[in-house]
Design a protein that fits this description.
The structure is a single chain. The protein is of the alpha+beta class. The chain contains 19 helices and 36 strands. Strand 1 (53-56), helix 4 and strand 2 form a beta-alpha-beta unit. Helix 9 runs parallel beside helix 10 (260-267).
């Protein structure tokens, strides 16, 4: 059927955001499938190319991995497709917008739609049920609370988490000089810098009172044992006492000032919120609370602006669009085929149709933890590991109100108390019957407070849900508050499950009639706390009562439940009676939330090195599927107490770097000198001839094309006699239409001089052909494309990677090459050339394996002359022909 552009006018609005950022499924399909294109009545094209990365789920982590892959593919040709089951709802976090009334769904067991986009796709044994998932671009990231503490080392046991993953996450600096992934994630979501959203007299008074009372709270960490605040921990210079004062919002330090260690410890109580409340530069709006939608929007708009316009169809040429986002496209099945290397996904079945997956493409499952497990079970079958190890968080809430007199350090003259947010980390040690140690588990407290009038009851209303307009700000500061509302939210980790524990897991529902609206079998979720989980929960609740006593400071408190004051003027030691350590019952008494209500499910596709004990490998790939990866908390082997956002984003960035890796590290090799090491200074030694260009990105140079034909980037300072040349190269798209085709030219004449051996079939005004006529090209072309000018077919050995191009005679004699390459180069991975030239003998090694050996014919005197024969010959260069081949680490021993 014809491809019809969707109408993006509604009864009330024109959906500019959705139309400008998203495509329909059919718009994406006709860019890769010639049959779909013909059915849509579109003209045939020879340049259709598959999507290199297909991301299933455009929520928090799907949007983040799409944006990171887009950034990593700068100046390259990779295509990225995002398939999201829901619509485009909001362009940023709901709290960055005027009060809309949109909120998360409540816990339930039914499958009805709530809150515009909240759906529950699974069944469960949990008596309270689950809120489900936010089916929209950005997913739950447009609703989340923003708390982003980092996992402690103790929360990532070395015998459970893969060593390589731990090294990459926790490093301050990676071996190649980039930041470690926790640090990258902290920067991206906005918790590295001081919490500029929370400040003022109330905050300082509460922090000071908590700091002074920590020793009375059982099971909380000694602050000296915790890592520094991110701004201190990741700082590039040693922190000073003035730095800490600024971090803590202290305008003037007392005399004598406190010790620097005291201030460092006090900073550890600052809330790690992913909120930017103040601008970083003049003329900029603040970023506000993090969500993944702006990341995806930025990438989608950049992709659109880089896509040329097609005058024939009077719209953008989507065939050349490198990032497409398809919403309202639910994925129900991944079909696989068996290959020599193992199973690979070959088709993605969606509600809109079937999407083919090319052999070089990567599929990334980025759904919620439970739905990712369901899709894996439906597609790959039950292997006894998929869906196991389901873990979540234990969560309790205590809301109470204290008179302002309880806060000893609060200045009496202060009228408006504003807001506060603090963070306390705890660890409970288990004991055996004989009293010996039996391991430990972690929890933390998220303490929020606001100064309200005597009728105020909701601390999160000011902290998270009310962003004052400028005309209300002054009035708010002048309000006279008499009480402070405090929320202590405790969050504890569930212990991971051992290999024989099926108590908490995701399976397919045993009732075959339990299907969703797309006729896919629903998942069934069994989430059961262990006895140790309950012991941790009790310890956490007891500690929260002691935190309340610290803030009450001998004063009576009023207890709040569900927004209502239920008890007034009680001693805080009675909290356990008013709010028992149990789930809320119908009367509302109890402080514990249902296990399914935290939105923090994890672990069902846990990563590990041993395929017998894990579902995915340390690079997030399914052990038994060659081209399918996972993004999100489903990967976590253990949970810890933090919100999974920071760790999930860290793993997303690490996955993106694995799928599109940095070049190998610079190494010092005896006798070798770098011609290009990634620096601007060395890049300046290279000059362009002919068409196209090479662009710099990081430590790489990337081939680009234009209408002027083949191009050559050559090293201009000097020619070389005998040498060994080493370099690394990467092929974004080694196979298929418009595949990568490049090469390394050696022993050619200076292209700045006239061509001494012109060929009338080649353009006389293209200086790059000097290298063709006077040197030899070591080919890079996995499809071995033939020269169409001479009717050459594809597939000839002399046109394939590793060959001396156009040396057509196979053998070991003069003028022949002994080509024996059997390597198939993987897409988007770095490969290594070593090219040895001595007199007129040429040896080419690819990834350590000799692939050809060639001796120039004595009669071929126009090509391959060293400077001892021709002082203007012996140059080295890189070709741009088709595709975006990347080069790095060019060095020579001469």
């Amino acid at each position: 059927m014809p491809l019809i552009a969707p109408d993006y006018n509604t009864a009330f609005t024109r959906d500019v955001l959705g139309r400008y950022d998203c495509n329909t499924f059919d718009e994406a399909l006709v860019t890769i499938d010639p049959n779909a294109r013909a059915a849509a009545g579109l003209p045939g094209r020879g340049d259709l190319r598959p999507f290199d990365f297909i991301i299933i789920g455009g929520g928090t982590f799907g949007a983040a991995i799409a944006e990171h892959l887009w950034f990593r593919s700068t100046q390259r040709s990779e295509r990225i497709l995002v398939l999201e089951a829901g619509p485009f709802l909001l362009p940023e976090h709901v709290q960055n917008l005027p009060m809309l009334g949109l909120d998360t769904a409540g816990a339930r067991k039914d499958h009805s739609l709530q809150g515009e986009v909240w759906g529950l796709a699974w069944n469960s044994s949990d008596p309270f049920g689950f809120p489900g998932l936010a089916y929209c671009l950005g997913g739950r990231s447009i609703y989340w609370g923003g708390w982003s503490p980092r996992l402690l080392d103790a929360e990532m046991p070395k015998d459970v988490w893969p060593k390589g993953v731990l090294d990459d996450l926790t490093a301050k600096v990676l071996p190649d000089g980039r930041k470690g992934y926790f640090r990258q994630s902290s920067d991206q979501i906005g918790v590295t810098e001081t919490n500029d959203f929370i400040f003022g007299d109330l905050h300082r008074a509460m922090r000071q009172q908590l700091f002074g009372g920590l020793s009375s709270i059982p099971d909380v960490y000694d602050l000296a044992l915790l890592p520094d605040h991110p701004a201190v921990y990741y700082g590039n210079t040693p922190v000073t006492i003035d730095d800490l004062a600024k971090l803590l919002g202290i305008d003037k330090l007392p005399s004598p000032p406190p010790s620097i260690q005291k201030l460092r410890d006090e900073a550890k109580l600052e809330a790690p919120l992913a909120v930017q409340g103040q601008v970083g530069h003049a003329g900029f709006f603040p970023f506000n609370k993090f969500s993944a939608v702006p990341l995806l929007m930025k990438a989608a708009r950049e992709a659109s602006t880089q896509t040329p316009f097609d005058g024939v169809i009077n719209r953008l040429d989507d065939v050349k669009k490198r990032l497409m986002v398809v919403e309202r496209c639910h994925v129900t099945q991944l079909n696989t085929v068996n290959t020599e290397g193992g199973r690979r996904v070959s088709e993605i079945v969606t509600e809109r149709g079937v999407l083919p997956v090319s052999p070089d493409s990567k599929v990334i499952i980025a759904l919620g933890t439970i739905e990712s497990a369901r899709l894996a079970l439906t597609s790959f079958g039950t292997d006894g590991k998929i869906g196991r190890n389901l873990i979540a968080h234990l969560r309790s809430n205590v809301d109470f109100r204290v008179p302002r007199a309880a806060l000893a350090a609060l200045p009496p003259a202060v009228k408006a108390l504003e807001a506060s947010a603090l963070f306390v980390k705890g660890r409970h040690e288990f004991k055996k019957a004989d009293g010996s140690a039996d391991g430990f588990a972690h929890f933390h407290f998220q303490i929020t407070a606001s100064g309200l009038g005597t009728n105020g009851t909701n601390s999160e209303a000011e902290l998270f849900k009310k962003i004052p307009d400028i005309d209300l700000f002054d009035a708010h500061k002048n309000a006279t508050d008499t009480h402070v509302v405090i929320t202590i939210r405790g969050i504890g980790e569930m212990e991971p499950k051992n290999d024989s524990d099926f108590g908490s897991s995701v399976t397919l529902d045993l009732d075959p009639q339990q299907k969703d609206e797309f006729q896919a079998r629903r998942a069934f979720v069994n989430l059961q706390p262990s006895s140790r989980d309950y012991e941790l929960w009790d310890a956490m609740d007891k500690a929260s009562d002691e935190v309340a006593k610290v803030f009450a400071n001998g004063q009576k408190i009023d207890v709040i439940k569900n927004g209502n004051v239920i008890v007034t003027n009680i001693d805080p030691s009675s909290l356990a009676t008013v709010l028992p350590y149990k789930f809320s019952d119908q009367a509302g008494r109890g402080r514990r939330d249902g296990l399914g209500t935290t939105h923090h499910e994890a672990g069902t596709l846990r990563m590990g090195e041993d395929p017998n004990k894990s579902v995915t490998d340390p690079d997030c790939r399914f052990h038994n599927v060659t081209n399918t990866y996972v993004a999100g908390p489903a990967l976590f082997p253990t949970m810890g107490s933090p919100n999974p956002m920071l760790t999930g984003i860290a793993l997303v960035r690490r996955l993106g770097d694995h799928l599109m890796p940095e070049p190998p590290l610079l190494v010092s090799e005896p006798g070798f000198t770098y011609l290009f090491d990634g620096s601007d200074a060395q890049f300046a030694n290279w000059e362009m001839a002919g068409g196209g260009s090479f662009s710099r990105f990081g430590r790489t140079i990337i081939a680009q094309q234009n209408e002027k034909g083949m191009g050559l980037l050559f090293y201009k300072p000097k020619p070389f006699e005998d040498f060994t040349l080493r370099l690394d190269f990467l092929l974004p798209h080694p196979r298929g239409n418009g595949n990568d085709n490049s090469g390394v030219f050696v022993r050619f004449r200076d292209s700045r001089l006239p061509d001494p051996a012109p060929d009338p079939v080649d353009p006389a005004d293209n200086a790059a052909f000097v290298a063709v006529h006077t040197g030899f090209e070591i080919q890079i072309d996995e499809e071995a494309r033939g020269d169409t000018r001479f009717g050459e077919p594809d597939g000839s050995f002399f046109a394939r990677t590793g060959a001396i191009y156009k040396i057509k005679s196979l053998g070991t004699g003069e003028g022949q090459q002994n080509y024996q390459n059997n390597i198939s180069l993987a897409a988007r991975q770095w490969h290594h050339y070593e090219i040895e030239v001595k007199k007129q003998d040429y040896v080419v090694r690819l990834n350590g394996q000799e692939v050809t050996r060639f001796k120039r014919s004595p009669s071929d005197t126009a090509r391959g002359n060293p400077p001892s024969v021709d002082p203007n010959s012996g140059y080295i260069g890189l070709q741009t022909h088709t595709g975006n081949v990347a080069f790095a680490n060019v060095r020579i021993n001469a």
